[in-house]
Amino acid sequence: MWLPAYACDVLAQASVGVEEIIWYSAGARLQVEPGSFASLRPGDAVLAVDYFGRSPDAAFRQFAASRPDVLWIEDRAQAMAPDAPAWGDPLLYSPRKLIGAADGGLLVSAAPLPQPDAAYDPADDASLWAPEDVRSADPDGRAAEAWFPLFQQREAAFEVDRRPISRRTLEALSRVDAGTAIRRRRANYSRLLARLTDFALWPDVRPDFAPLAFPVLIEDRDQVVGLMGARGLFCARHWSDLPCPKDGFPEAWALSARMLSIPCDQRYDEEDMERAAEALKAVARPARAF
What we know:
This protein is an alpha/beta fold. The protein has ten helices and eight strands. It has helices spanning 9-14, 58-65, 95-99, 130-136, 144-157, 167-174, 178-195, 221-230, 250-258, 270-283, and strands spanning 2-4, 22-24, 45-49, 71-76, 91-93, 106-108, 214-217, 259-262. Helix 4 (130-136) runs antiparallel to helix 5 and helix 7 packs parallel to helix 10. The longest helix is centred in the middle third of the chain and has 18 residues, at 178-195. The relative contact order is 0.14.
């Protein structure tokens, strides 16, 4: 199993039982070079991520198409609407990351798939939805101290398992207006790009995809997270710790220390993006070249 060096540790956890994990570089700007797979063998599996919702570039997709003897796994956990057709089979989705559903992921494949275990009924687990229930009582998001720790506790308790998705999450999925969400994400990303070009991971990329967030590279990232939080802006660190070894992957670990994700999803409007951009410029400096 080939895994990108820049990834969350859950990918490594989910790969327990494979014969061998081989890490490969995702590149300084998260566009994978086909040259990373010089020792790829028939029967190997390669997982690659549509980072922040953006598909890998054409060179990678063409390389994947040229190797039908390899299992290509497309991780769309961050991708609501990528900017290229599917290049992998299977596809992995995470409604939790994209729309805030409490539980579950989706595995889509042309091949027959194992079904989830049915012994557990998530509807009986009131604690699963406790963060959403408390958050719904604070529609303006001004009492984060009440609900944010609950989300953190649930995140820490997640396990890789085969429990079925809850009925409540299925209902939430059925109510999503995907078209509006995609348009608002793109518009918000463009607003941030116009204001934060010097910080942007991809300063020259227009959002033909539906972005998970707006990725920036900054100095003193962990300090900036706290400073942004003090201003009521909660920005994710994708990712603060990596499962790959530090030796041999300097670009991944440099990204891990400098990457910050500015929210730009469908909950926000132009005024919110202006506030977020001004806050970042007030407390952060663009990362130096690395």
